[in-house]
Fold:
Amino acid sequence: MLGLNMAPRASFSRWITQRALLVVMALVAVALAPSDVVAEAPGTVLKVPIGRVRSGGGVLYVGVYSRYNWLKPGRHTTYQKVRAVQGTIRVTFEGLKPGRYAVAAFHDENANGKVDLNFLGLPCEGYGFSRATPFGKPSFDDTAFELRDRREMPIRLKY
Structure:
């Protein structure tokens, strides 16, 4: 052998895989969770323009979460499943209670109901979050915002 230390490469590969799994778990939670719409404040409106949708194939899942259900499967506050259109899609949620929320979006391009991964184990379909879309699973505080009556919270998908 040449005396090269391969441990850093294996460690980095393991780190990438762990980050990819966290993102995948978060996106699957959005895609497969049943809806539980809260409609107690009829005046609230949350508009979510989702930009950088790369194709008109498949569907987008957009979930709204509170701190206590952040990215937990089946525990979102509400969600919508909409047909994908290349460019920007606008999703509107009405009737949420005023409070602190975060939004997660996932573009299921082939409409197979799951997040497809590339050879590195990273999502090859689009995903995004309100306020920030980091490489790994974001915290609620990184993506949360206040909803009082009307709010627009844009999301830019990453592929």
Remarks:
- Residues 7-156 form one domain.
- The beta strands are 45-53, 59-65, 78-83, 87-94, 99-108, 127-129, 145-147, 150-152, 155-156.
- The chain has two helices and nine strands.
- The first helix runs from residue 7 to 32.
